[in-house]
Automatic annotation (TrEMBL):
Species the sequence originates in: Jiangella ureilytica
Domain of life: Bacteria
Pfam families named among the record's database cross-references: FAD_oxidored
Protein name, entry field: FAD-dependent oxidoreductase
Molecular function terms, GO-annotated: L-aspartate oxidase activity
Gene Ontology biological process terms, A to Z: NAD+ biosynthetic process
InterPro entries: FAD/NAD-bd_sf (IPR036188), NadB (IPR005288)
Length: 537
């Protein structure tokens, strides 16, 4: 592999997912030069390459996110209003939900999210302050004591590029920069003796991590046969049943995440449905799998525009449980990635050939993959959906007892004097590679402490995604789209603020006057640092 000459930038953001995009926007608005590297071909992570519609709290239309995240959401809706033949009624909807999915009030196609993100970044490309290197993964970090001076990324073109920067933000999906830079971090389930968390095990379980999933999108064309070839591992997955699962994984019966009781979902393409409730505080939305993560609903568009809805398969049945992606060898990681792909293809094949139909028959052969929607050739998402990352050993670690409603009750979540944002989601942990069932319990609306973005030792690396100072448990509510956006945006703002004022992150956090000045800057930029009076769920 050849090596390119070193590149120089004010702020290097390794990882162009949700947090990485938000970090770049924050730093660019403050006049800094930014380089973003991203392993896949698309920026946007969960929103695009992983094809996961936003998981959001029920107040998102009024408050509870940053101004720029709201601009992204507005941009998605404006894109559909501008370019799609919406019905007159849909066009008038202020809270337009293009897919009428039940998981969120804004279910949309990944390509639309990509277009909006690219539009938000376009002015800075033109100004020459933003450089984006897609198809690049980090392979080395160059450190000097407690500082990271540069990171080398390898491109699919066979060229390695070394990028020097004053500040380095890790916004990768798995915290890939942390081991390369020698940043102290943890993975998996921490021991109760370390965190004091009521739900933690007695001993640490580093390889016990939330399942990841390889998402795909399908439509249904009645009377046609689009059955895929039988996947190579179909025999294995057809018979696979985790010990805590009520039936085989390939099926419509799975635990209810909140009660753990067996729950049989429905899956009937285009079945008549009542009003869509997209409020997870009232209804998890996962009972009807066709509607659950639907990203294009034909009833929202002029008659004849589309022959079918498009729905995303991101269900409990494709959560990959045999092993994790962090803390394992490259060969083991590759095996699990391929296993997850085979599981998803096996789920599709089962739906096409064996899934029960209301008429007593079996299979929906009219289900067709939409590779054009995913931006791939095989129809699966461009990248796997990652729920859990490596996490820095931070100045502040958010633990279960800081925000669990069971522990905190009416007191609400712990309030942090160094808040740089807010978020809300249930403590939602999917089944894990260590054999745990769901942990899905109520949480209180929470804050994002600045101390959770800062490693205990390394001075110029900032966490900008799901790799901040949470635990295996609290990662379950800090991992969702608007929270990750806020984390990344705060990280980018902090790096720029430190450069402008010749300060270190520790100096900003450690001095009340400087911290107040930085927080005032965030508020002026559209951050919300505290919740109004709302209760969790």
């Amino acid at each position: 592999m050849s090596t390119d000459a070193s590149l120089r930038t004010d702020i290097l953001i390794v990882g162009g997912g949700v947090g990485g995009v938000a970090a770049a926007l924050a730093a660019l608005r403050r006049g800094r030069s930014v380089t973003v590297t991203e392993e896949s071909d698309w920026l946007g992570g969960q929103l695009t390459s992983q094809a996961v519609p936003p998981d959001e709290h029920p107040w998102i239309e009024q408050f509870g996110c940053t101004r720029s995240y709201r601009a992204f959401r507005d941009g998605v809706r404006d894109y559909y209003r501008t370019w799609y033949p919406l019905t007159a009624a849909a066009h008038r909807q202020a809270d337009l939900n293009p897919g009428l999915g039940r998981v969120s009030r804004l279910c949309h196609e990944p390509r639309v999210a990509l277009s909006v993100i690219e539009g938000m970044l376009a002015p800075y490309r033109s100004a020459g302050t933003l450089r984006i290197l897609t198809g690049h993964r980090p392979v080395a970090a160059h450190t000097d004591g407690d500082r990271v001076g540069a990171v080398t990324v390898a491109g699919r073109d066979g060229v390695e590029r070394t990028v020097e920067a004053s500040y380095v933000l890790d916004a990768t999906e798995l915290g890939d920069l942390l081991p390369l830079a020698g940043v102290e971090h943890g993975i998996g389930f921490e021991a109760q003796s370390e965190t004091g968390e009521p739900s933690a095990p007695s001993e640490a379980q580093p390889l016990n991590q939330q399942a990841f999933s390889w998402v795909f999108a399908v439509e249904h064309l009645e009377g046609e046969d689009h059955t895929i070839d039988r996947p190579d591992q179909y025999g294995f997955w057809r018979d696979y049943q985790p010990e805590f699962w009520p039936d085989r994984l390939l099926g419509l019966t799975a635990p209810d995440p909140r009660t753990l009781e067996p729950l049989t979902r429905t899956f009937v393409p285009h079945a008549p449905a009542g009003p869509v409730v997209a409020d997870q505080s009232k209804d998890p939305g996962d009972r009807d799998l066709w509607l659950f993560r639907r990203i294009l609903a034909r009833e929202q568009y002029e008659p004849g525009f589309v022959a079918s809805d498009i729905t995303v398969v991101n269900w409990p049945m494709i959560d990959y449980l045999p092993g994790p992606l962090a803390g394992v060898s490259d060969d083991e990681r590759a095996k699990h990635l391929e296993g997850a792909r085979q599981l998803s293809l096996s789920m599709l094949y089962w739906l096409q050939t064996e899934a029960p139909r209301p008429d007593g028959g079996a299979g929906w052969p009219g289900l067709r993959l939409r590779p054009d929607v995913m931006g791939t050739t095989d129809g699966l998402a461009m990248a796997p959906y990652i729920r859990e990352s490596r996490r820095i050993k931070a100045h502040t670690t958010v633990v279960e007892q800081d925000l669990s409603m069971t522990v905190r009750g009416d007191a609400g979540a712990v309030r942090y004097p160094d808040s740089v944002g807010i978020g809300m989601y249930r403590i939602d942990l999917h089944p894990s590679t260590g054999g745990d069932n769901y942990i899905d319990v109520p949480s209180s609306p929470f804050q994002i402490p600045l101390g959770a973005l800062l490693p205990i030792r390394v001075r110029n690396l900032i966490a900008a995604a799901k790799n901040l100072g949470t635990t295996h448990i609290t990662n379950g509510c800090y991992r969702l789209h608007p929270v990750e956006w806020n984390i990344g945006e705060a990280a980018g703002a902090l790096a720029a603020h430190c450069l402008v004022n010749s300060l270190t992150p520790e100096q900003v956090r450690g001095d009340a006057r400087r911290l107040e000045g930085f927080q005032s800057e965030l508020v002026a930029d559209g951050f919300e640092l505290a919740w109004p009076e709302v209760k969790g769920y």
